[in-house]
Amino acid sequence: MIILPRLHLVEIADLSWCPSWFREYTQSSLAQMWRTIPPFAKSSPAAQAGDILIENLPHSPSTYTFVDQCAGAGGPSPIVEPRLNEKLRARGEKPAKFVLTDLWPHLREWDAAVKKSDGNLGYVSEPVDATRAVRIAEKGKRECRTFNLCFHHFDDGPAGKVLRSAVETADAFVIFEMTHRTPTALANTTIVVLSPFITTALWFYNSPLHLFFTYLIPLVSILFAIDGYVSCIRTRTPKEMGRLLEREVNAEDGDAPLDLSKWEFKHGERKVLSPFGWLYWYAGIKKE
After folding, report:
1. Crossing angle for the helix pair 45-56 and 77-90, nearest 10 degrees?
2. Sheet holding 121-123, edge to edge
3. What is the per-residue pLDDT across 124-176, written as a single tens digit (0 to 9) for each?
4. I need a surface site. Which of 13, 107, 162, 188 has the fewest CB within 10 A?
5. 124 burial class (0-12, 13-18, 19+ CB within 10 angstroms)?
6. pLDDT tens-place string over residues 233-250
7. How far is CA 69 from CA 65, 211, 214, 239, 274, in A?
C-alpha cells in the first residue's frame, strides 16, 4: 500500500561534500544486508535476488552476462554472483558472468572483488553512463542490465534514458529496490536507522571517528534517517515505471519513439528480511 507521493528529494550521500567515512559505512551496511540470513530464513537477500533472476528470465541465467550499471564500490553483484552460480552448477549448467560498471569506477574495490571471485566477475575500467550504455556481452551471449538499490537515484528524465538505453542495447533489465513508499519499507528503514548502535561496535570498533559519531554524537543515525527515508520517497511503483517507458514511446523529449513491441514487463516483491524487509523488483525482458 503506497502511502506517500513520490518526491525526488536529495540524499546526503549524493552530495560532493558527503564525508567519505559515511559513504564507507553505508556501503558496508548494504553489503552486510545482502549477505544476512535472518532467523527462520533459508537464504540471504543476495541468494533470493538470484532466485528472482532464475524464475523470471526466459532462458537460463548462464546464457546472460549480467551488467551492474551502478556498481558503486562493488554493490551486491560480487555477493549475488557466487550464490547464483552455485545453484546453476547444482543444475548442471554453466556459470553466469557478472560485470561491474559505473560512471565513477571504483577500480581498487572492484579489483579486490574480482580477485576473490572464481573468474565469473569482471569490470569495465572506463566510466559507463547508464543513460547511454553500450552493449558489453560477448557475441552469442544475452545481456541483462541490473540496477541494485540504485534506480531511485535517477530523476524522471535520466531514468527514462536509462530504460531506453537498456531496451535499445540489451536483452533484459532488472531493477531491485529495498525502499518504497509503503508502511513496511518505512518501518524497515527505521530499523536501519537504529542499526549503527550495534553495527559500529562490530565493524568499526577500532575507529575513533565512527565511535564518536555513533555513540557521543549520533550523526550516523541522523544521516541514515535522512537518506533512508528520502530513498523511500524516491522509489517508484510499477505504474510509475511504466509511465517512464511511455514517455520514451511517445518521444516526449524529442528522441525517436521507443519501440516496445518486442518487450514484456514484470514486477513483484519478496520478503527477504524479517520483520519488514521486502525486495521489490521490476523487470523488462525482450521476447524472442
Report:
1. 60
2. 121-123, 97-100, 64-68, 142-148, 172-177, 277-286, 263-273
3. 999 999 999 999 999 999 999 999 999 999 999 999 999 999 999 999 999 99
4. 107
5. middle
6. 999 999 999 999 999 999
7. 12, 33, 32, 22, 28
